[in-house]
Amino acid sequence: PETIYLSDYSPFGFVVDEVTLTFDLHPENTRVKSRTAFRPNPAATDRTFFLHGENLKLINASIDGTPVAPDVSDKGLTCDVPDGPFIWESEVEIDPQGNTALEGLYMSNGMYCTQCEAEGFRKITYYPDRPDVMSVFTVIINGPHPVLLSNGNPVASSEGHAEWHDPWPKPAYLFALVAGELIAHADTFTTASGRKVDLNLYVRPGDEGKCAFGMQALKDSMKWDEEVYGRKYDLDLFNIVAVDDFNMGAMENKGLNIFNSSAVLASPETSTDMNFERIEAIIAHEYFHNWTGNRITCRDWFQLCLKEGLTVYRDSQFTSDMRSAAVKRIGDVIDLRGRQFAEDQGPLAHPVRPESFQEINNFYTATVYEKGAEVIGMLKRLVGDDAYATALDLYFERHDGDAATIEDWLKVFEDTTGRDLTQFKRWYSQAGTPRLKVIEDWADDTLTLTFTQHTPPSAATPEPQPLVIPISVGLIGPIGDEVAETRVLEMTEASQSFTFDGLAARPVASILRGFSAPVVLDHDLNDTERALLLAHDTDPFNRWEAGRTLARKSLLSMIREGTAPDRAYLDGILAVLRDETLDPAYRALMMGLPSQSDLATALHDAGEVPEPDLIYAATETMRAAMARRFRDVLPALYADNLVTAEYRPDAEQSGKRALANSALALITRTDGGVQAQAQYGAADNMTQQLSGLANLIRADRGSAALKAFEAQWKNDRLVMDKWFGLQVIEADPEDAADVAAALTDHPDFNWKNPNRFRAVFGSLVMHHAGFHHHSGKGYQLLADWLIKLDPVNPQTTARMCSAFQSWPRYDDDRKALITAELDRILAQPTLSRDVTEMLTRIRK
Ligand code: HT7
Ligand code: ZN
């Protein structure tokens, strides 16, 4: 496959002033007519007229009304064109029903929908499908469906016919069309400037009862973006549509967001607290794209982090404001370490702004999204809140309507703050997770912290240079009092010292507060010092981090030397659990352990080979020890936090349920599932029901409840995804792959539906000891199904391939088993470009 390079960017030779698309919908033979006004682009030198187009049957084409016969290939067409402005018209035929890849125009449960980011529009018609070509779209839809939707505002509609006009120029990737029998959940929002916006959430009949929460989240997001970023909505209509077959979470098409039904539909009976929180965040994320992505888009796909990093950052600010900022930050860091650090430290490592790709769909990664958001957080930390707000105002003013770059983004910060961001820009161009080592020196009432930074070289970045690292530091005195408030140290050198003087006694340094930079910190505190931070740090992140570090250290020595669980760790957590002044959600987080795959990474970092069975056993031993050590507080923790009031998915109630359910997981270890059975039987919401079920499976008494659950929910696709996933997640390591394999024989295992495929195989991959079973049966099963799925849906297949990215850290037997599977997949005769690129990178 061809490799595309950032350095090869050149503008398209033509400007598109407007485009009119006419769709005559038919499941197998949809006709798409396009009428596009082109004129030479004064900013371009190359006048090659190339229009992207894939899987299209060209019926006819003309220029200024005269038929033409373009040169057509499987990637697009070229044609001789006039020197001045001209009108291009074409008609193509496409097959939405046969489009199982879910890119372009496709069908889901009898409904038509589109997914055009990144390069799906070229499967709809011939067009310059690149984000720097922005145009005003008019869309005419003919089809026998009660609901016919596209971007912008409706301009005409009659039975079987609708016309839409979007006044805001946009790239083709933001185009959308939906047609089907849908029900609207309607509401309105009035902007700060008095514009009344109609809001609709369109769902399939039967899902009407799952719309209210999503709608409220949308209104909250619209208000928040006005209040915090001064961004108002710019059309009279905002539509969201829920579809069941969707490759990712949701898509920010202008005025017509399309959502995976799992990312928008919610009700207390069918959705967990975590589902509600995720839905709120995704609705916000897609809505925020209206400014960071749509009004200001990306010049090319290398700039993806420009819209995604910033929008993730904005949605995390929103969630912090709506819920608990500390809990959100800790959750984000757990996620970053689990997914982004793994990517950055393995064969798939790439910079936040990659410099080359074969298939752009493979770069919608944790690095681009989550590390991209961390980079924005660091920038804000370095310049300060006020300067960030000023820079953002200038960004919106200067670049509204532009297809912008990271250079444009950094320039607004340089212009508003006077800073030189040349070195900071390395965060965008260097792959790899920096290691930050700190050494303390105490003399003459002065604490000196000497930091050394080192980014391990990788194929993507063979010679990393020092980065600008904001290091938030506070000091805790020997009796637990804060003796120095948070100060942001700005590290720019490979090695650098900072001093804190006038201290009465040697303090304990609380370093990297709030996780102020996405680095691995090496700070050699002893267990007493960590216990002090766990008990007293005023920074909630570092307080949690102290507990997490004690847990990790204890688990590592249990794995290596078979030691007993660390008593100081257990005592420290017990004290936290007893502290009723602490938010229940925060206490629930404190009860968590590092994931088994995080422990594998820690061992690998220390130059050791992780053994999944030992890691699993140590984690189980630790949980059993927690159940014993906390036994006096668990019943009250459970009872006090079991919410009996009417269900609300807000931070307060969901935090309490999280704590009660963490307690239940430990109680189940000693009561054999009695409490879990009671909870399962009494539950009136999915959070309680699912946790009851999970604990029953753990206690080996899940079969009746699993059957009852299936009977109760067999007609609810989203709940059944949970049923499929939970059985794999809760299986013994010995059985996980067999359970997954058995589930693929279930009549409801619709493997072409990405949610269902991920429910089974995403869960298997997350089951560290199950997936890495020494027999290789986990690897083999996944490979079999990836081979089967690839011809149907390459995008989802390629995404799942990342399960194999950690192969170099395992023992020789497992390495041989994994690489054999990778080679078996790579040997398939018609492997997609998506999977070929992923596996070639992973295999290196
Ligand atoms: N901007 C979107 C990214 C995306 C996508 C969404 C759904 C299906 C396929 C997709 N490919 C890329 C989602 C977002 O980040 O908001
Ligand atoms: Zn996004």
From TrEMBL:
The Peptidase M1 alanyl aminopeptidase C-terminal domain, residue ranges: 528-842
Record has Cell membrane as a keyword: no
CDD domains from the UniProt entry: M1_APN (cd09600)
Domain Peptidase M1 alanyl aminopeptidase Ig-like fold, first and last residues per copy: 432-523
GO biological process: proteolysis
EC number in record: 3.4.11.2
Reactions the enzyme catalyzes: Release of an N-terminal amino acid, Xaa-|-Yaa- from a peptide, amide or arylamide. Xaa is preferably Ala, but may be most amino acids including Pro (slow action). When a terminal hydrophobic residue is followed by a prolyl residue, the two may be released as an intact Xaa-Pro dipeptide
Cofactor names: Zn(2+)
GO MF terms held by the record: alanyl aminopeptidase activity; metallopeptidase activity; zinc ion binding
Keywords: Aminopeptidase, Hydrolase, Metal-binding, Metalloprotease, Protease, Zinc
Keyword Metal-binding: yes
Family matches, as Pfam families: DUF3458 (PF11940), DUF3458_C (PF17432), Peptidase_M1 (PF01433), Peptidase_M1_N (PF17900)
Domain spans labelled Aminopeptidase N-like N-terminal: 21-174
InterPro entries in UniProt: Aminopeptidase_N-like_N, Aminopeptidase_N-like_N_sf, PepN_Ig-like_sf, Peptidase_M1, Peptidase_M1_dom, Peptidase_M1_pepN, Peptidase_M1_pepN_C, Peptidase_M1_pepN_C_sf
Domain Peptidase M1 membrane alanine aminopeptidase: residue ranges: 214-427
PANTHER family linked: PUROMYCIN-SENSITIVE AMINOPEPTIDASE
Stored NCBIfam families: pepN_proteo
Family stated for the protein in its record: Belongs to the peptidase M1 family.
Protein name: Aminopeptidase N
Species the sequence originates in: Sulfitobacter brevis
